[in-house]
Amino acid sequence: MSSAPLMSSSSLDPALADNLPVVDIPGSYGLPFLGPILDRFDYFYNQGEVEFFQSRKDKYQSTVFRSNMPPGPFMAKNSKVIVLLDNTSFPILFDVSKVEKKDLFEGTYMASTKFTGGYRMCSFLDPSEPKHGTLKGFFLATLAKLKDKVIPQFTTVYSDLFTSLEEQVKQSGQSSFNDLNDNKAMEFLFRLYCNGKSPADTKLGATASKTFDLWLVPQLAPLITLGLTWLPNFIEDLALHTFPIPFCIVKSAYDKIYDSFYDNLGSILDDAESAGLQRDEACHNIIFLNGFNSYGGFKVFFPALFKWIGAAGPSLHSQLAAEIRAAVAAEGDLTVAALEKMPLTKSVVWEALRIEPPVAFQYGKAKEDLIVRSSDNKFYIIKKDEMIFGYQPFATKDELVFADAEKFVPDRFVGSDGEKLVQNVYWSNGRETDSPTVNDKQCPGKDLVVLLSRLVVAQFFLRYDSFTCEAEKFLLGSKTTFTSLTKATSAK
Q1: SS3 281
Q2: Cα(425)–Cα(357) distance, rounded to whole angstroms?
Q3: Dihedral sign for Cα atoms in the order 90, 394, 298, 491
Q4: Is the pLDDT of residue 483 over 90?
Q5: DSSP code of 430?
Q6: What is the pTM of this model?
């Protein structure tokens, strides 16, 4: 199904507004102080994330409405947001000429800069701030410099992952993909940026991913629930969502992370100085880019990717195996050129990004009065300085844009009609058809993530014909456990 026209918003022109069927934004924020707390308990405990948005969408018969978003009182100055749940209104959050992105990377809450060496990271900067362009330009230049190392380094590290996965399944009948993936994702990233050196040979040791998790959790705690049924909700809420966890608890862990990167980034820090950055600020930003953005993304998305492929069953597995092996045979190796000959593999990755995006939320504050249009052609006025919140798992499962939107359709993006839909995949804080620049907030590693996702699928099906797995919801994503592997005939 094709999407509606791409115009999602416009500057508020009184003459234009008079000619549009403008609808008041439904919903309310409730009583001061109490309203945000009640919405927070609905979001985390009474309803859960999906039902929280679905129930309000049904109640107001609208994909645009007012609500509070966690964490609310104490941690956030203002929890009041205008929620966007459809595919057409959502892209207003990408237009930095109309929305401000300053300090909104984590939403209405922002962790202390003590977690990042006292600096505001690039992710928290609005493009209007001069340092944003310097830092993002540095990231893009660094990724371009490292591009030839990506496939060889990733292939080596993830070959070890699959060997361990296979051994564990053989010995115990199952293997936690998440645990192996966390370790190898961090190893790959560290080796890529630090001249091939293993984190095990630094202060990080063999448990680098656990050290990063220790640093990440306090920053994400206000936005998650642990799902511990034996712990009363009000106790968890008090511990996670009421007061920030102090940096001092994880300072020693972050010191290990910082020292390990700083000692091994080498010429990358020289490049940062040439770009006008201080070496320590550049190091903290590289750590954040790798630990929060890249590692965090792989930590969430790769288990989800294999969950959906596993659930699709042997028919899809055989199609992927045939496509991947034919492309590699034609090119003589697993290269970028070979990956470009795998349309189904690429579609599967986009479909997983569509149905379970690794980043669920986007925020922006209106710079001016705006008219926003929803997928069902309703028009809403958002006033200057109002906070806008987009919930991506609903926006990319908009039935008015994607047929069978709740269903994982592996070949959804294959062919000319499928390629037209790619623009409506938004996981990277931008359209999938866009490329990141220094003037926007699209993920600088967007193309790298898609490449590596295709690469990990290709690596897997060069080794195996099929597999089974079980999956369950886990913190910010899925916990995927492999229960069987069928080796490829040529791999036996």
Answers
A1: helix
A2: 9
A3: negative
A4: yes
A5: B
A6: 0.94
